[in-house]
Amino acid sequence: MPLTDVRPLQEGLPFGVRIGGLTREILKDKTIRDEIDALFIKHGMIVFEDVEQSDEMQLALSSCFGPLKEHPVKGLARVDSDRMPGVIEIRSKRGRGIVEVDGRQVSHWLPWHFDHCYNDELNRAGVLRSVERVEEGGVTGFLDGIALYEAFPRDLRERIEGKDVIYKLSTQYEDLKFGRPAQYRMIEPKPMPESFREQAAAMPRAIHPAVWTRPTGEKCLHVSAYMAQGILGDETPEGDALLEAVCQEINRLAETCSYHHTWRPTDMAIWDNLRMLHCVSGNDPEEERLMYRTTISGDYGLGRWETAPRELAAADAMA
């Protein structure tokens, strides 16, 4: 039995679909599951509408796309590691992690990025649901790297293609080096548990290509402003200027070719982390927001460490 409620995500967008009417019972059908995965491969993003809001439903949807993966950052809050490995809690706490963006103070704002850029291995996707919503803001934006590559100015695209970008696990707003909004300053730093601080200090920098070619043949522009440190082999004023130009062009193009999702109580969404960029608008610092995200395993095999992680280097020395 094929899916009966599949619609474009938004008129005029080259990516994304909406699927309605799914239940846990329907998802037991392998034909349906395979059809959903094929739509995901083609369109890069799916918003599931009017679905049961439960851990069990989130896991059932996630399992259509591959096994769950444990999140690489040990300090992040887990929902239930024994029952739901890889499911993290993303909470915007009142009065914490505040940044001023274009004259407005918000918490939990994030620029355009892809997940796990600070790691040598990415994840295929994430499935996200809103557990506690805010009155205003808390919007998640999505941007297609295939469309970005096609829309980029040719000269800038040719200059960044073939380059590798260096990333470092660095989450504080004041550490954002590239793609900053015109008006930008940190008001209140994000909470940083000591376990997170120690892991970030121990991790080497990670390297990922700015442009990569998908197995289906399309080229994808895949640059995260968040946590970017510079261009490999060109950490110079000239190299930084190139990366800044790329990040600002992403910001500019996002104004006309991105999708911004306002969360409803009955929504879940998945996006292709190897293809898409996403961002978060932030919300009133006096309000709290809570999201649950599963992490779907599946890497593209193009990332690497700049140097060996300390634990690997120690193991090699003992061998």
From TrEMBL:
Task: Provide the alphabetized UniProt keywords.
Answer: Dioxygenase, Iron, Metal-binding, Oxidoreductase
Keyword Glycosyltransferase in the entry? The reply is: no
Q: Which InterPro entries match?
A: AtsK-like (IPR051323), TauD-like_sf (IPR042098), TauD/TfdA-like (IPR003819)
Q: Where is the TauD/TfdA-like domain?
A: 6-295
Q: Is Iron there in the keyword field? A: yes
Q: Which GO terms describe its molecular function?
A: dioxygenase activity
PANTHER family, alphabetized? ALPHA-KETOGLUTARATE-DEPENDENT SULFONATE DIOXYGENASE (PTHR30468)
Q: Which family does it belong to?
A: Belongs to the TfdA dioxygenase family.
- Name of protein: TauD/TfdA family dioxygenase
This protein's species is: Novosphingobium beihaiensis
